[in-house]
Amino acid sequence: MMRAIASALVSHWRRNPLQLFTLIVGLALGTALWAGVQAINTEARASYAAAANDTAQFSLITSKSGQAMDMADYIGLRRAGWLVSPVVEGDLAGISLMGIDPLTTPRAMGLQIGGQGGDLAAFLLGDGQIFARADVLAKLPKSLHGILRADIPPDTAITDIGAAQRILGRLGQIDRLIVAPVQPMTRGPLADNLRQTQPQQTSDVARLTDSFHLNLTAFGFLSFAVGLFIVHGAIGLAFAQRRVMVRSLRAMGAPLRAIMGMMLAELIILAALAGAIGVVLGYLMAEALLPDVASSLRGLYGADIGNSLAFRAQWWLPSLGIAMGGTLLAGGGALRTLARMPLLASAQPQAFAMARSEGLFMGSLILLAVAGGLTIWGHGLVTGFAMLGALLIGGALALPTALSGALRLCFALARRPIAQWFWADTRQQLPSLSLALMALMLAMAANVGVSTMVSSFRLTFVGFLDQRLSSEMYVSAKDAAQGARIADVAARYGKALLPIVFADRVIAGQTAKVYGVVDHATYRDNWRFLDSVPQAWAVVARGQGALINEQLFRRAGLNLGDKLAISPDISLPIVGIYGDYGNPIGQVIVAKPLFDSVFPQTVALRFGLRVAPAKMPALRRALREQAGLSDAAIIDQAAIKDMSLMVFERTFTVTHALNVLTLAVAGFAMLMSLLTLADMRLPMLAPVWALGITRGQLAVLDLVRAIVLAALTGALGLPLGLALAWALLAVVNVEAFGWRLPMYLFWTDYMRLGGLALCAAALAAAWPAWRLSGMAPTRLLGVFRHER
Amino acid sequence: MNVKAVILCLLLKPMAVCAQGFAGLGSVAQDGFATPSSQTVMQFPRDHGAHPDYRIEWWYVTANVQGQDGTQYGLQWTLFRNALAPYEASGWQSPQMWMGHAAITTPSAQFTAERLARGGIGQAGVTFAPFQAWVDNWTMAGRDLNRLNLTASGPNFAYDMALTAKGPLVLHGQAGYSVKSFAGQASYYYSQPFYDITGTLHLPSGDVSVTGKAWLDHEWSSQPLAADQTGWDWFSLSFESGAKLMGFVLRGDSHYTSATWIAPNGQATPVPNGAFTANAVGMHRVSGRDIPVKWHVQLPSHGVDVTVSALNDDAWMATSVPYWEGPVTLSGSHSGSGYLEMTGYEN
Fold it and tell me: Contact, A324 vs A271, CB < 8 A?
């Protein structure tokens, strides 16, 4: 019996190989996009975790002046009882060389010197040993004794502090001291020239880059949703077509339970197969995109992820699971309908499709209402995502009704018979095409949403760089004396010298940096506020107000006019709030004289220099020769901006690749639907052909129909995409990162996306249309011969 | 003797990899390290300082002290030196590695801490005039060895003690040349067993003022254990009569024992192999291994026949080289107190 059922089930796929292909490829593509994105995210997070093992989890001690500490600082602290470990860090041929003292590094850092080629005596004495990944070792000078270690962060090499000081030419210098988590019972005070910073709760880099990964995840999720629509369509169609077969099997005595069990097993096998293909495709896709993603992250945040991708269970297992779950979700409804079907009911595939579409509009209204409710009353990231989901699915479910309305309108406006037939026929096909069209709309909306988000981010960030990098040149001094020489040179060549000076403080219960800013037109002319009192800079300059960044404003729940305690005896009203993108912590800006009175021990070592472009080379030379600055300590504003823009171009490479991929998936769905429809539509086309419309004309009409439907769908997808972008920027981003990105519209991008969607639809319709144009007349005639 | 572990191979590799014997002390001296000679005459105060041309060295203080309420405590302060090469250099290139161990043992608790440091940078070291031994903020320092201040602190304890010598230095073996095996392994080894000690223990339960007796050992060598020796049991016992006994058993294919009988006036009598015996009579499970915490100790030539019992059976030093070290009390032919150290017990 089981064999009979199985062979009957398999025979369906044998007769409809295209359907099987659709099902597997649709699911595989959806899974591939999801898996690929997750693979990239997982790889990046693994790299951050390796980097976080470094020092992010520990409290650190650095010098207040921002310069290197010396051995006396270190030994002084040890002899006072502090369990601290010295680190020196510097650049060696583009690699970050980190020198540590293995005897005092906290055990929690988990660095093992012995084993895997490492040897303590060799590490400490003589030329030392350098631990790094293979690609880093290849870049190191051959004279150094490299040891291969996969657990070292990317682009980093670790060696003994003595060796590092020698190699970097920084004998006796220490950049920071790692404070062990457990300290002894008795300990002396921290020296005056040093400061201790608390460990980051989570690593900065992970928080910063979350925004980037959120984009990718949103993409992966939406792509998978598109894939699910395809699967849903394919399974729904296959099950509907098999109603006759199921009825016959049951009539012959096969138990319903056995048939359902077999069909469920069939679904699971198909899902596993397609999921596995998807995981492999996803891996290939991720591997192709990873170098671009890696360089984006490096440029944007200085976060390093390797260029090689590992096959980690953290992404492929959930991807397989989600493929399985998605299939069962898509097939479950169809299976249930089949199980409830009365034994003697007639099997009418078309009516089945029609009946199902009627409930969609109600569902859509409910979901959109839920999305609206969540926007107004919801809080938190999960709610944000739930709202996103409700919005998208609700929007997609509304599509058939909206399209049907539009087509009805066109029909009413049509005067000529062929046009009337065209619109009526299009509307008649709508139920069968609606799933593919929903997939197309979701793809379109996802692309509009993510493109808007990424482009808004770019525009905002570039504008933000313009405000922030308003000086033509940035220089850093080694010490106060060099700072004075810089001021000297600047007075002769430049227009203004703007010191950059800050101190760490807990403000309104949040860790924050307090900046002291001089009164200068540069700030008044360039900085834009999200909200401010009139003449905010003038109020700040008089020492009567403070400016805060958006992060502090949102996290501490502050408002304009609220008093902010800068020190125990100085409180200032907030007079302005400024956007501060990509920065995880709060900021406060006060007037420089006020800053100096509160933090008298902090001296400015970094400066912005305003200078006429023509005088730049002379100023640079003077800084080098008279102030003793190295080239590394002088940075052109233009160079920073160029680099930032280049980074964004990389980000766009990734975004564009994903745009094309999602639309390709949707186009594929459409192709499959049209191919399936082609045979079913013969009885409707044959009479029109018999009335004198040529096959060629019919083919052109079919092509036009696909494009018109795609255009209508795209037009409806645009507002949905914009709603999605708004939700990402104004809800999810705020919940996730504490700042709101302003939303900009990019009509040329949308036109391009619309064009791509039309192309996808036209390509999808081309083959069925071409088949129609060359169809043997006997097949069309056969319709009349077999007329029921 | 306090033949003690030293480290660094240990810091980084599992114990088993480290040649034979406890903490690799059974490995053959090599790489140009000096070896002790029976002809050498100790020179003080110079020999109170460090001997970087020898592979290992330690300064070791143990004390039996008592609070005003009569509660017994044990106290340990140790500085180990382990050289990767037989020389000293300044800066990070120094091959001298330092390790500090400190502990307070109460009848119900054991507090321990460990410090590691490189030589050459001032984080740890020993100078002889004035005498100063230190690692981080742990110090043992004074104008000379007769008056010392001793401090250490761990995450949950600290102490601050003053030591005053009430008798002469004691040289073990042959004028300080102490033989450790049938094969002739030896070390230089002397003690100052006559300290009065007073000071304050800082414990989680509060500060405790204590007084008592302390014992300092200083020992250096390059290869103190023979290849077959896996560890030792070491006793420093102070009798109420004022006499003292230092004795140890080196466990190998056949055991090697050595001891010094110290009269109340400091007169030292070396005891040859076999005359001193110590037999385990009570075991206790600590840190996954069985450790003898009750001993039957005999030195018939001086009428000693005592039972040695731990004040706290769990006086385990869970440091990078783990061992048992704690205060003991005596009963039998003599009464008194002392310290017991046991190394090389595998789990």
Answer: yes
- What is the count of residue pairs from A and B with beta carbons less than 8 Å apart? 83
* Average confidence score pLDDT of chain A: 79
Is the Cβ–Cβ distance between B184 and B201 less than 8 Å?
Answer: no
Interface touch B12/A161, C-beta < 8 Å: no
Contact A113 B84 (CB under 8 A): no
Q: How far apart are CA B101 and CA B79, in angstroms?
A: 7
Q: Which two tokens stand for residue A461?
A: 């960030």
Cα torsion through A435, A441, A444, A445, rounded to 10? -120
Report residue A343's pLDDT band, with 50, 70 and 90 as the boundaries: low
The answer to whether A469 and A522 are in contact (CB under 8 A) is: no
Identity of the residue numbered A733: N
* pTM for this entry: 0.54
**How distant is the Cα of B47 from the closest Cα of chain A, in angstroms?**
25
- Residue A103 and residue B202: Cβ atoms within 8 Å? no
- pLDDT for B20 equals 38
Name, in order, each residue with C-beta under 8 angstroms of A296's C-beta and a sequence gap of 6 or more: A212, A647, A650, A651, A654
**Chain A partners within 8 Å of B32 (Cβ):** none
Q: In what order do the strands lie in the sheet with A130-132?
A: A146-148, A130-132, A156-160, A95-100, A84-92, A176-179, A59-63, A194-197
Question: What pLDDT sits at residue B43?
Answer: 94
What are the helix (H) ranges across A59-133? 71-79, 120-124
Q: Which residue of B has its CA nearest to A188?
A: B137
Residues B141 and B148: beta-carbon distance below 8 Å: yes
State which amino acid sits at residue A441. M
Residue of B12, B80, B92 to mutate, interface with A, max A Cβ within 10 Å: B92
* Structure tokens given for A348: 């009418």
Element (H, E) at B9: helix B9-12
Pick the more confident residue, A543 or A641: A543
Q: Phi/psi of residue B237, each to 5°? A: -120, 135
A483-494 pLDDT tens trace? 888 888 888 877
Nearest CA in chain A to B136: A79
In angstroms, rounded to a whole number, what is the distance separating the alpha carbons of residues B340 and B346? 18
Q: What is the pLDDT of residue A761?
A: 84
Contact A185 B155 (CB under 8 A): yes
Question: Measured at the alpha carbon of residue B329, what is the angle toward residues B328 and B330, in degrees to the nearest 5?
Answer: 125
Contact list in B for residue A115 (CB cut-off 8 A) is 12-13
